[in-house]
Amino acid sequence: MENYSSLLEKQKLFFHSDKTKDIKFRLDALKALQESVKQNEQPLMDALKADLNKSEFDSYTTEIMIVLEEIKFTIKHLQSWAKPHKVKTPITHIGSTSYIYPEPYGAALIIAPWNYPFQLAVAPLIGAIAAGNCAVIKPSELTPTTSALFARMMSDIFPEEYIAVVQGGVETSQALLAEKFDYIFFTGSVPVGRIIMEAAAKNLIPVTLELGGKSPCIVHHDANLKLAAKRIAWGKYVNAGQTCVAPDYLYLHKEIKQEFITLFREAIIELYGNNPLKNPEFTRIVSVKHFERLRSFLDNGELTIGGNYNSDNLMIEPTVLLNINWEDPIMQDEIFGPILPVMEYSQLDEVISGIDHHPKPLALYLFTESDNVQERVLESIAFGGGCINDTVYHLGSPHLPFGGVGSSGIGAYHGKGSFDTFSHEKSILKQSTRFDLPFRYPNVKDGLKKVKKFIK
Ligand code: NAD
C-alpha cells in the first residue's frame, strides 16, 4: 500500500508556518483557483465529455459555473467571515468580553465521487482554502480524464505542501485514510461513508459526510402540473439521473396521475428529443457495473415511458415505471440513473408514513399550491434540504447550507457553510484585571448564599 505520511508531514509543516492563516494568502489562492478554472473551461468540458458524455451546457452550468460562483461569493465575504467576532457575555462573567475565533483545522483530506467529478472536488476545496487549511484531494478513479486534468490544474498553481491531488482508487483512498489528517470531507455513497467514519473514529478526526439516498418527489393534486412535469424531468434526467439530489422516486396523487404522465412524456421530448439515445448531448452511465445494475430494474412495475438502452455506449433513455411499491428491487437503494419509479397515493398521510419508515432522505421535493400541505410535509418529514415546486435548485444557493441528515449525511457546506465546516470555532473569554469578583472563590463568608442571590 502506498504511504502518504511524508506528504502529510510536508503539509503539516507548511501549515505551521502560519502562511495559510494570512487572509491575503487565502484570497490570492482563491483568485489563482478562479483564474485556473476560467483558463481551463474548454479542457474541462472536453474531459467531462470524454468521461461521461456530458454536454457543454451541463458541464458549464452544473460544474464550472457553480464553482466560479462559489469562489466569487467566498472572495467577497472572506474578510468578514474570518474575523474573530464578539458575542454576548453573561452577567455572571461581568468584566470580561467574549469572542469566537474561526481557526483552520490544519491539513484536510477531501475525497470526491465521479458524478460531478470536478465540482464535487473543487467546491469543498474552496471552503478548505477559505478557512486557511492545507488540503489533499482524492478525486474519483471512475472519471480519469477529469481527475488527471484537475490534478494538473492544481499542481500548476499550488505547491503540494499546500494543496495536493492524489489520484487512485479504493486502495489509495484507504492509504490516505490511514493518515492522521485534521479533517476529512467525504462525498460519496452511504456504505463508503460508513468506512470513512470508522477510519476517522480511530484517530478522532472530525468529518463531514455528504452522502446519498432515496430522495422523494411528491406531486399533490393541486400542483401546477405542467411546470412540475418540466422541473421534475430536468432534475431527474440531468446527468442521466446520476445526481445525489435527483428525485429518486415519485409519489403521485391518484387524481392527477394520468394527466401528469402525459405532461411528463411531453416534457421529456421537449428537453431531450424524441429519441434521447440518439441525442449526442445525453449523459451516459459511468460504468458497465452501474449500467447493468440499472438495466436490471427495467422490468419492475409497468413500463410506461422509455425503457430503451444502448449497451455499446452505456446510455439508458429517460424511463418511467408505474405501479411500483416499496417492496420492488428498485425501491431498495438509491437508483442513481435515469429511471423514475412512480407510487400513487390518495391521502398525504400515506406519503408521510411511507417516507418516515425509511432512512432520512438527502432531498425532498413537493409540488403543491397549498401552504397547509407545504407546512405539513415540512413539519412531519426529516430530510437534508429540498424545494417546494422545484427540484435540485436549492443546491446552487450559497445562502443555503447543503447536506444530509441521518444516513444521508453529517454536516453541510456551500457559501459560509463551507467556511464554517473547515473552521474550528475557538471560544475565547478575555477577562479584566481591573477587579476580581470575590464570591467566585470558595473562601468567601456565606459564599453559597451570595452566589444564589447573584444569579437570581
Ligand atoms: P463511492 O462512495 O463509491 O466513492 C466515492 C469516493 O470514495 C471515491 O473517490 C472512491 O475512490 C472512494 N472509495 C470507494 N470505495 C472506498 C472504500 N472502500 N474505502 C475508501 N474509499 C473508497 O461513491 P460514488 O459512486 O463515486 O458516488 C456516488 C454516490 O455519491 C451516490 O451515493 C451519491 O448519492 C453520492 N453523492 C453525494 C453527494 C452529496 O453532495 N451528498 C454528491 C454526489 C454524490
Question: Outline, from the CA principal axes?
Answer: globular
User: What fraction, in percent, of the residue positions are helical?
Assistant: 40-55%
Looking at the overall shape, the CATH architecture of the largest domain is 3-Layer(aba) Sandwich
- Main sheet specs: 7 strands, mixed
Structure report:
- With 456 residues, the protein is an alpha/beta fold.
- It has 2 domains: 5-211 and 406-428, Aldehyde Dehydrogenase, Chain A, domain 1 (3-Layer(aba) Sandwich), CATH 3.40.605; 216-397, 3-Layer(aba) Sandwich (Aldehyde Dehydrogenase, Chain A, domain 2).
- Helices cover 41% and strands 18% of the residues.
- The chain contains 15 helices and 18 strands.
- It has helices at residues 5-16, 23-39, 41-52, 56-82, 119-130, 144-157, 170-177, 190-202, 225-237, 257-272, 288-295, 348-356, 371-380, 416-421, 447-455, and strands at residues 85-87, 97-104, 107-111, 134-138, 163-165, 183-187, 207-210, 216-219, 249-253, 302-305, 309-310, 315-316, 319-322, 339-345, 363-367, 385-388, 409-410, 423-430.
- The strands form 4 sheets. A 7-stranded mixed β-sheet has the order 10-13-14-9-8-15-16.
- Helix 3 (41-52) packs across helix 4, helix 4 runs parallel beside helix 5 (119-130) and helix 9 (225-237) crosses helix 10 (257-272).
- Bound molecules: nicotinamide-adenine-dinucleotide.
- Residues 111-115, 120, 138, 140-141, 169-170, 173-174, 187-189, 192, 195, 210-212, 244, 334, 336, 362, 404, 409 line the site of nicotinamide-adenine-dinucleotide.
